[in-house]
Amino acid sequence: TAARCSPAPSTMRRSVSEPGSRSAAKIQFDPRIWIREFERTQDEVDLTWYTDQDMERFKRHALALMVVARDQLRSTKTKNPQLLATGTARTICNSNRKAAIYTHAALSVEGESDALLSQALQNETYRAVIAQQELQKVLIVDPHDICVRLFQKAFETLLPNVQVSGVTSSEQAMRLLETQSFDIILVEERLQAFHNHQPSETGSHLIRTLKSIQAQDHILWIGVSAHLKCDQSSLEASGVDLCWGKPPPRMSVDLRNKLLRTILVKRGQAEFAKELFGEGEL
User: How far apart, in whole angstroms, are the C-alpha atoms of residue 217 and residue 267?
Assistant: First the structure.
C-alpha cells in the first residue's frame, strides 16, 4: 500500500499559541481562545469545603490586594524608574519583582497578614473600583432640562465611568424602566414644572409605583426637591434612601463612599460594606 504523505507544514493548522510568522520582526499570535467547561459531579459538590459566598469574598480580597500592589508599583516606577535592555532594540522598566505566570505577585503568601488585607480593602483606589462595578447606571427624573443636565454633570464628576439617562416626566421614566435597569434613580418630588402638582403627579408617587411593579431592592433611590423642607417627609415616606436639595451636594469621595455603602447594604452585602468602611466610618 502507498504510504500516506503528511501535509506540508505550511498547510497544517497552527496551534493557538504558535507565532503567526517566525521570520517577522514583530511576532503575532492567534488571538482565539479555546474554553472547555466541565459540569461538576454531585460528589464534587458534596466535597466542596467552601460556599459561593466564601468564593466571592476571596475574589474581593484578591482584587483589593492587586489594586493596592498596582498603585505601589506605579509609584515605584515614577519615583525610581530603571530601564533594562531587552535585546530587541526596546527598553522596559524594571518593576523590581519576579513575574508570576499563574498568579499575581500580590497574592503571594509571603508577608500576607490581616493588617495588610484590611489596609487594602479600605484603600480609596479599591473603593473606586468597587463603586465602578456597583454604580454603573443612573436615571434622573426631573421636569427641568437644566436640572437634568446639572445632576448628570454631577454624577459624571463623581463616577467617571457612569452611564446617565435623563427624562422629564414619570411616563418617560416608566417606559425606560420597561427595557432598562438602573443602580441609582433620582426623582424630583415636584414633577409638574409649571402647574400645581396633584398627588398622582409627584415624585414620591412615582417611586411607590415603580416599587410596586417589580422588586427594586437593588436600586438606590434619591429624592430631590428645591423645597426640601416642605417635601422631605413625603419623599422619606415613599422609601427613598437619600434626600437631596437643589443644587446637588458637593461631589466628593465621602459622598461616593456613602452611595456605595448604602447600595451594598441594600444588596445584602453588609459584611462587605463593613470591610470596606469599618464600623464607624460615614
Answer: 7
Cα 269 to its chain centre, rounded Å, is: 14
What does the H/E/C string look like for 20-49?
CCCCCCCCCECCCCCCCCCCCCHHHHHHCC
Q: Are 238 and 209 in contact (CB under 8 A)?
A: no
Instruction: Give this prediction's pTM.
Output: 0.70
Sign of CA dihedral 159, 163, 167, 172: negative
Q: How many secondary structure helices (H) and strands (E) does the chain include?
A: 10, 7
Total residues found in the chain within this entry: 282
Alpha-carbon distance 90 to 129, whole Å? 32
Q: Which residues contact 217 (CB under 8 A, 6 or more apart)?
A: 266, 267
At 272 the three-state DSSP class reads helix
CA distance 225 to 21: 64
Distance CA 207, CA 188 (A): 10
Reported as a single tens digit per residue, the pLDDT across 236-260 is 999 999 999 998 899 999 999 999 9
